[in-house]
Please model this.
Amino acid sequence: MSGGFTIEGVSKTFDGSSSPVRALDDIRLTVEEGEFVVLLGRSGCGKSTLLEIMAGLQNPTSGTVHLGQELITEPNEKIGMVFQDPSLYPWRTVARNVELGLELAGVPKARRKTVAQEHLELVGLPDAGPKYPRQLSGGMRQRVGIARALATEPDVLLMDEPFGAVDHLTRLQLQRDLLRLWSEHKRTVVFVTHDVAEAIVLADRIVLLTPGPGRIARTWTVDGERPRELDSPELMALRDEIYSHIGGEPAEESVQSTVDSQVGL
Ligand SMILES: Nc1ncnc2c1ncn2[C@@H]1O[C@H](COP(=O)(O)OP(=O)(O)OP(=O)(O)O)[C@@H](O)[C@H]1O
Model:
């Protein structure tokens, strides 16, 4: 295994159309190997920017990211990425979409097929291989995106609002599935969401970012076995505390998802 992340003094300023945008300011964070960390915050607080810097897809204006001893400045095979839109190639079968990273890594065809099938089984889609993406539901496509990211066996999975575009019941199912995969394989996961309930259900540790410029406002360690009961007194108190730090009223969809999650879990 490659060790955890060490993020030291990471700042990022974009050239905005009228004035510079300070997306991140002096982010300092360590993520332990095997830890499940959720980056939580409202739109525009720099969550995606931070995740992309951790993935080596963007470089910081200043500061450094290390995975173990390795300085991250470009994409790395030890790091897998899952986005909100899985961006599957419509002309390739599901299996051949999952094989993509293996192809780039030069893995022979027979081995690619075996590994793709194993990973489709892992995400609960054993029969999807010969199908095309258009034949799958949004939730199934997102599972394929996860299978594709896991197929190259990265040590770390970086996930940017991966369940943001699926319906609510599917989202709850995908959360449960992700926790199962994580507990079986114990990869390091850094997961971006703006949904407080999702953060509480998933995280070992929640890192709250606030905007203007993006900074770490607070972190919380979440105790308790999974699956978690969101209506337990401890987790209700944590939810209220997080909202008090986010400031203002919870966004409509967050309230709804919290309620749904309480019902669903
Ligand atoms: N390429 C870019 N050029 C200019 N500004 C950018 C660029 N990418 C991000 N920003 C700005 O940086 C800030 C942080 O953006 P980022 O997408 O990281 O936030 P976020 O918390 O992930 O938001 P969301 O939840 O809406 O995806 C925002 O003000 C955004 O407009």
The mean pLDDT is 90. The pocket of adenosine-5'-triphosphate is lined by residues 14, 16, 21, 23, 41, 43-49, 194, 214 (CB under 6 Å). The radius of gyration is 18 Å. Residues 89-153 form one domain.
